[in-house]
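Continuing from the previous page...

OK, I double-checked the sequence for Probable cyclic pyranopterin monophosphate synthase against my notes and this is the correct one:
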Amino acid sequence: MSETPDEPSNAAGSSEAAAADELTHTTDDGDVQMVDVGDKPDSERRAVAVGEIHLQPSTIEAIREDQVGKGDVLATARIGAIQAVKHTWETIPMCHQIPITNVDTDFSLAEGRIELEVGVETTGKTGCEMEALEGVTTGLNVVWDMVKAVEKDDDGQYPSTGIENVRVLAKEKERT
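Thanks. Re-ran it with the corrected sequence; updated structure tokens here:
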């Protein structure tokens, strides 16, 4: 393929090729595979992820005052987040089933948004950042589901509602 001004230079292409060579979920032929972690030593691992859902201020107040018709929004979202952490291996195709030793959830209510931080701990051969991310996204989806009736506008749309800034804050590993 010839290089055009809109395509990366050879140097960038070389770094992209090197990154592709480091992909662990594909074979040399490009087929998808699960990574073999059998020879890795067990380690104590922790990952923390965070994200936020933007809501109308009146919805935040209803959550704070436990006035949402479906029930306790944050308690339900906490259960959903923990369940998602425990079932991550069932929803992410190449994710290993790992022994979850602890899940921490922390909700922060602010003007127009709720932030959810999920910390996951395990002792095993692979990390738990995907579990933390699944906990955050599912927990925030549960919040949305619990409040969707009051978040809808007159046309049934959600102009003020959005899940954003989902990311891993920390990933730690200590050899046991």
